[in-house]
Design goal:
Two copies of one chain form a homodimer.
Chain A (H helix, E strand, L loop, with lengths): L1 E8 L6 E7 L2 E5 L1 E3 L12 H6 L5 E3 L1 H6 L3 H7 L2 H5 L5 E3 L3 H5 L5 E3 L4 E4 L6 E4 L1 H11 L3 E3 L11 H21 L7 E6 L5 H14 L4 E3 L8 H11 L9 E3 L5 H9 L4 E3 L2 H7 L2 E4 L2 E4 L19 H5 L2 H9 L3 H27 L3 H12 L6 H9 L1
Parallel strand pairs in A: 4-14, 5-6, 10-11, 11-12, 12-13, 13-14
Antiparallel strand pairs in A: 1-2, 2-3, 7-8, 8-9, 15-16
Helix pairs in contact in A: 6-7, 7-8, 9-16, 10-14, 10-15, 11-14, 13-14
Chain lengths: ~375, ~375
């Protein structure tokens, strides 16, 4: 089953408080979803994720297709059982990864021929194949197979790509074997062109998906441009369906995105910078790897109540990072995910109490980010 | 404070049940001690270690001296506070690591000049320096600075080395600043020569240390030879003091060592083979990295009740290992340490109930190890 319930729209912004119900439990939106590319959120175990209250995690179709492969996934009875995670899972379509392969892939109307980044073996991915894989994975939320055009693609390329993405969305929908158990989202493309975004949204809404993703953003364009594309696109998506902004999760984009009506986010930022020795804190990013923290015995974020901040100092974590100790990556990953999930919890509370703009001012001023001029966005969103 | 209480000697073997009391809590012996080289048991956090009931862990003086360095260690108030571990800690003397540097070090009566394996910087380690570092680290159990002669060293070299180790033991004892809080163990050397081992033991016992370590074993000699050296050495150590067999921790050596009167063990085996994709199980070693386990959905060890075996399959862990995912190393490390700590718990129970020989038969037959002829050992030990 899949159900989205719009609980409340905020008074002064386009922010929405909602609830998604799946066979594997409920998701309070707006939500940030940790990324578990290969069936593991890097360095976390599934108990860690529950402890930090991750309500849903991602799996990557491309990676899981290559390893462990669908024969084992099928024998395991799907990804939930394989990795022992009984809460909701969302999978991407594999499109983004396949297109990122560059010279290793060839796109046709039928699909994409590509070579594995692991061993060079030849594979073919199509809407039908992507859906078949996602059906085997058994994710609660699936994605249509789309083409994510580069940020600098010209109008002509982007238009053709967007049109093909619409045709692929139709084929994805037709190929879906378990629509009652797994919700398939359409993905809005259209690059940096307002009219193409609107057309893409309209064509997908026409096909009536249970939710809509916004793809092809945060691919090299400015933040302003990204927020503009949200302002242009979101008014064309139905209020009664969830909206998912793919691959976006910086502190400013989370809050600005929510204000524009986005319900779901995912990002590898939190886990990736953790492995590079950087923490997200209420005061901004903290590069704990730096020598300045060698004898700093305060927690990563004095305002954070996570187990890492309660138990370990910057000096200790810096030492672990400098020694390439696994525990360094693990502690930073835990904290960064906790920090982001907690931020989204505060966002949900603020929406409930109609004070999201206030929360934005509070968070951004400490973090050192400038808020966008939101009146324009608000006008567009409510028009 | 430091106190060793001999609770019971087993009827049919030389095994001893005991209790060590330190300022950071009690240790039930015989005990296996996980190795936390750089202030972290690789991939574990301190809560993991408590959850699996690790009663004491090791730190390595050489590594901690280089990183984070003693300035930070001092500011932190010692290793317990630095890493947030409030149970006992044992440190080695740095001797073994320094001697392992090969061409990078030069030994004189005064001490050892060496170059850091990290950046080639020049350092000098002596008994006085080693003790000073261990005083700063604040470990509950410290080691005298010793020379660990190679297994194939000849009689002359080994004799001179053992004699210097005795002189260094005296200097270590004299340099010790906090004998009331930190117990300093003497280290028996003497290579593979019976008379040198006996002389070393006697000379150290003469100096009256609160505990005795057996060093220079498991350095390339056969298991039989190692057990023989224990048979030769242990009768010369006082019953009322704990005995620690350094760097030894395979399943057979643990039980055979306990039967010969050893109280404490440490080993990097458990954590190192974990990071290579190998599990210790009641049926022997399981190389879960192997293709045979790709679709094996049983736990690592069906007889184990650890959280890893309760939650994850061989297939999942094998997938993690193949993908070089941190979680693979972490789950295997947890299981291997849990398995070993649990084994020692069983050993302690068996001693209490005078059935250690029975337990040995049970464990070895499943594991596929041949027991030694113990009558000989027993005779020596009780003589």
């Amino acid at each position: 089953m899949f159900k989205y319930e719009l609980i409340k729209e905020e008074k002064d912004t386009g922010a929405r408080l909602g609830k998604i119900t799946t066979d594997h439990g409920e998701i309070q939106t707006p939500i940030f979803m940790p990324v578990g590319t290969q069936g593991t959120v890097k360095s976390m175990d599934q108990d860690d994720l529950k402890e930090m209250n991750a309500q849903i995690i991602l799996g990557n179709t491309y990676h899981l297709y290559l390893r462990p492969g669908m024969e084992i996934m099928e024998k395991a009875g799907g990804l939930h059982k394989f990795m022992n995670w009984d809460r909701p899972i969302l999978t991407d379509s594999g499109g983004f990864q396949v297109f990122s392969l560059g010279d290793l892939r060839k796109i046709t109307e039928e699909g994409v021929e590509f070579r594995s980044h692991l061993d060079g073996s030849k594979h073919f991915m199509s809407p039908e194949k992507s859906i078949q894989i996602q059906n085997t994975i058994g994710s609660d939320i699936m994605m249509c197979f789309d083409e994510c055009a580069p940020a600098d693609a010209d109008y002509d390329y982007t238009k053709k790509s967007m049109e093909m993405t619409s045709r692929w969305a139709r084929r994805s929908k037709d190929a879906h074997q378990r629509p009652d158990e797994q919700a398939l989202f359409g993905i809005v493309q259209g690059g940096m062109f307002d009219d193409l975004r609107v057309r893409s949204a309209n064509e997908l809404v026409e096909m009536d998906f249970p939710g809509y993703s916004i793809g092809g953003l945060s691919v090299g364009e400015t933040k302003e441009k990204m927020f503009h594309m949200l302002d242009v696109t979101l008014p064309h998506l139905p209020q009664e369906k969830p909206r998912y902004l793919m691959g976006v999760g910086s502190v400013d984009a989370l809050i600005e995105g929510v204000m524009r009506g986005v319900d779901m986010f995912d990002c590898v930022l939190q886990t990736r910078i953790a492995r590079n020795g950087t923490a997200l804190t209420s005061q901004g990013k903290l590069v704990v790897r730096n020598a300045a923290y060698a004898d700093d015995f305060r927690p990563l974020d004095p305002e954070c109540d996570c187990p890492v901040c309660r138990n370990y100092s910057r000096a200790y974590i810096r030492h672990l990072v400098k020694c390439n100790e696994i525990l360094g990556a693990r502690l930073l990953t835990y904290h960064n995910l906790y920090f982001t999930l907690k931020l989204m919890e505060k966002v949900r509370e603020a929406i409930l109490e109609d004070r999201l703009l206030e929360l934005r001012t509070e968070v951004f001023s400490k973090y050192g980010i400038k808020p966008t001029d939101y009146q324009k966005a608000l006008k567009l969103n409510r028009s």
